[in-house]
């Protein structure tokens, strides 16, 4: 993430040094002792770069009191790929300036095929433009059914949020009387009613008073309707301390190091939380803005709540749409008039796996990657103007190789595309913007497109079906390989970070990580952090991307593997596979398993890397009788390995398409039916028809499958009673057959 603004400072402590660690410990135990450094900055240095980051990064973890409003020239870095907008220019460009709250949000697909979200605003005060009680505002991205678009460095609003909006007429195709936020994220000054503060990407405001309104909106407000929530917050904070309920006390956080979006659980111990949650809240620092604001948990993140102990999941997609970040935890006890308590210690979020939310069921899931190009993964394509900039193209290719060779994600670069612009068109584009495609102050962003589906058990699964990246062609880039100098922006640093979003990782407050929320001008940070970036990328790949799933296309193959095939003959079963651009590879292990894989996988052969022409073959001369599975494990130099999707073969005449229902017998209680299908090397659809013992048609279904082994689930027809049935199946690629099914 790249944030602009000159960084200069007074206090200088080496990142990772004992002095810095002692400073962290001192400030966590006695924040008051850090008060004299609140306006200072810390110089961090590591590996191949030296950067000056504001002491705010430390205080974002530890401070109990927000910073005052700051100008772009002195503001600490807080946001990626953004250039600070002048407050005066923002006021001048906005057609309307209002204080308002988001009351409703609804996504839709516009005439250009992109997804946008329409938000209804309840207006409280008008600073510029004609007064209106309600307004409609459009933002880019959103969810329609099980399709979702998410753009980095782009404003996302949630119902319940309020603040000051700088608006201009919407440019979305088909928009009429609707508005959009000028400058995207920088056009919304968000209120925190807990402490009556406000924040935007480059500024933080301590108080919502007349001076704040004059500084932000440059005009006296005109009342449109009362802001009840704001008035209640003012009244609560105005009460004498003696009249307030006794504050809660936080005595412990465990564990102190966690991941976000993975189901990790934090336990908070103390006293005075309340016997049940009720109106109680737990909040983490917001990793998207470096902890300038807090992010609230979703209701289903709360696991237990007693007066002395709270357990919560750590979200990568909170109720406010942000990932939890490193820093203290804030707890508001249950009960009227309660004020929040800040933990004396901090939790460290080492990586955040991006979550996608299903708006129908409110489920969240980590999105996996799929084999979308028939060669194991996803192919990016440069636009013509980007490809013509050979330095930019080489820099971006190095960034892709960084992720591919350290996590095993199967990405490659294809031919230059003929189209331009960002669109949900099946092409993964990398290009420069033309005209005003990017919002004011935005230097670049990545769009991830998701497709979801429901498994037979009702759980939701999402996968990435396209990624587009766009950069500002007018920015002061250093394309490398030379190091940047201030005020240049290191393009490879930015590309590695944005590809981290494509890898499905969210922001962190962790300066040593690529996914840290901020990057400064002149900073060179091109290497992944093994404990954070690499670990997070491998988590997504190994728990989602490389595993077969009944939802979506075939799973991604671990790089550098691009083709695998198992063939049976009279001499045994031969496995053939091909790789491309080998890296992070020490060899392969070939394994097999009987049809019931619970019996375990047996090693068949070990093959060293460095095959002739990147082609490999091994033979199993004594295969198991009947149907069995084979799979490759790609061995990494660090001793770990990644399993490719299994292949189903028979010891008779080669790869065989065979359907096996399970459980069989099937309980007559409406339980879902599993279908184990061993396909060939192509994807397709499977039609399954149910007939009873006398040949009467009982119903049917059509299912999509991927190459190799598929474990599918479906709901059997409701009319099935205990008895004997036949399943007649037809594969769109040709094979067909009939198998018995017993229901009892």
Automatic annotation (TrEMBL):
Residues 249-336 form the IPT/TIG domain. This is Uncharacterized protein. Residues 465-535 form the Peptidase M10 metallopeptidase domain. It holds the Pfam family TIG. Keywords: Hydrolase, Metal-binding, Protease, Zinc. It comes from Hymenobacter amundsenii. SUPFAM superfamilies: E set domains (SSF81296), Metalloproteases ('zincins'), catalytic domain (SSF55486). It comes from the Bacteria. Transmembrane segments: none annotated. One of its GO terms (biological process) is proteolysis. InterPro entries: Ig-like_fold, Ig_E-set, IPT_dom, MetalloPept_cat_dom_sf, Pept_M10_metallopeptidase. One of its GO terms (cellular component) is extracellular matrix. One of its GO terms (molecular function) is metalloendopeptidase activity.
């Amino acid at each position: 993430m790249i944030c602009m603004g000159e960084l200069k400072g007074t206090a200088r402590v080496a990142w990772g040094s004992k002095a810095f660690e002692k400073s962290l410990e001192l400030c966590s135990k006695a924040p008051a002792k850090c008060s004299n450094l609140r306006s200072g900055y810390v110089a961090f240095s590591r590996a191949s770069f030296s950067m000056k980051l504001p002491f705010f990064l430390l205080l974002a973890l530890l401070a109990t009191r927000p910073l005052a409003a700051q100008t772009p020239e002195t503001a600490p870095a807080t946001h990626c790929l953004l250039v600070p907008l002048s407050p005066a220019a923002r006021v001048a460009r906005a057609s309307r300036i209002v204080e308002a709250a988001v009351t409703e949000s609804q996504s839709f697909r516009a005439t250009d095929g992109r997804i946008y979200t329409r938000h209804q605003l309840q207006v409280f005060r008008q600073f510029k433009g004609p007064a209106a009680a309600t307004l409609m505002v459009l933002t880019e991205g959103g969810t329609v059914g099980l399709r979702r678009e998410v753009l980095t460095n782009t404003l996302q609003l949630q119902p319940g949020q309020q603040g000051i909006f700088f608006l201009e007429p919407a440019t979305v195709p088909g928009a009429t009387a609707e508005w959009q936020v000028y400058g995207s994220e920088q056009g919304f000054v968000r209120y925190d009613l807990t402490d009556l503060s406000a924040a935007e990407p480059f500024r933080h405001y301590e108080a919502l008073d007349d001076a704040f309104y004059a500084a932000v909106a440059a005009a006296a407000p005109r009342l449109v309707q009362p802001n009840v929530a704001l008035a209640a917050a003012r009244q609560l904070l105005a009460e004498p301390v003696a009249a307030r309920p006794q504050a809660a006390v936080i005595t412990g956080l465990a564990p102190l190091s966690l991941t976000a979006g993975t189901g990790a659980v934090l336990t908070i111990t103390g006293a005075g939380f309340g016997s049940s949650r009720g109106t109680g809240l737990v909040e983490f620092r917001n990793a998207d803005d470096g902890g300038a604001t807090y992010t609230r948990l979703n209701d289903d993140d709360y696991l237990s709540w007693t007066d002395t102990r709270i357990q919560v999941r750590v979200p990568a997609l909170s109720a406010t749409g942000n990932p939890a970040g490193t820093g203290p935890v804030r707890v508001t006890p249950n009960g009227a008039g309660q004020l929040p308590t800040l933990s004396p210690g901090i939790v460290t979020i080492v990586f955040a796996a991006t979550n996608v939310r299903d708006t129908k069921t409110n489920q969240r899931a980590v999105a996996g990657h799929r084999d979308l190009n028939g060669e194991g993964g996803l192919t990016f394509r440069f636009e013509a103007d980007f490809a013509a900039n050979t330095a930019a193209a080489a820099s971006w290719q190095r960034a892709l190789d960084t992720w591919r060779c350290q996590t095993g994600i199967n990405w490659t670069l294809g031919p230059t595309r003929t189209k331009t612009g960002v669109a949900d068109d099946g092409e993964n584009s990398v290009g420069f913007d033309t005209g005003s495609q990017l919002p004011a102050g935005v230097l670049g962003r990545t769009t991830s497109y998701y497709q979801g589906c429901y498994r037979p058990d009702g759980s939701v699964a999402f996968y990435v079906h396209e990624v587009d990246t766009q950069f500002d062609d007018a920015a002061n880039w250093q394309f490398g390989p030379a190091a940047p100098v201030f005020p240049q922006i290191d393009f490879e640093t930015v590309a590695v970070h944005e590809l981290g979003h494509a890898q499905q990782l969210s922001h962190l407050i962790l300066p040593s990580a690529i996914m840290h929320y901020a990057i400064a001008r002149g900073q060179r940070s091109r290497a992944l952090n093994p404990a954070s970036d690499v670990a997070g990328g491998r988590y997504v790949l190994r728990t989602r991307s490389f595993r077969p799933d009944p939802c979506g296309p075939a799973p991604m193959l671990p790089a550098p593997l691009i083709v695998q095939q198992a063939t049976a003959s009279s001499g045994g079963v031969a496995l053939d596979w091909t790789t491309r651009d080998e890296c992070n590879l020490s060899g392969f292990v070939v394994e097999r398993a009987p049809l019931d894989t619970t019996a375990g996988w047996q090693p068949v052969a070990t093959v060293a890397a460095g095959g002739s022409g990147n082609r490999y073959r091994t033979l199993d001369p004594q295969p198991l009788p009947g149907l069995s599975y084979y799979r490759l494990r790609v061995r990494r130099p660090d001793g770990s390995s990644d399993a490719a999707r299994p292949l189903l073969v028979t010891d008779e005449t080669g790869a065989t398409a065979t359907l096996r229902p399970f459980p069989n017998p099937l309980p007559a209680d409406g339980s879902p039916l599993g279908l184990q299908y061993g396909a060939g090397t192509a994807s397709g659809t499977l039609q399954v028809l149910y007939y009873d013992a006398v040949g009467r048609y009982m119903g049917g279904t059509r299912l999509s499958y991927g190459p190799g082994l598929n474990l599918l689930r479906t709901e059997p027809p409701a009319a099935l009673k205990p008895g004997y049935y036949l399943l007649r199946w037809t594969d769109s690629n040709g094979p067909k057959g009939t198998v018995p099914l017993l229901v009892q």
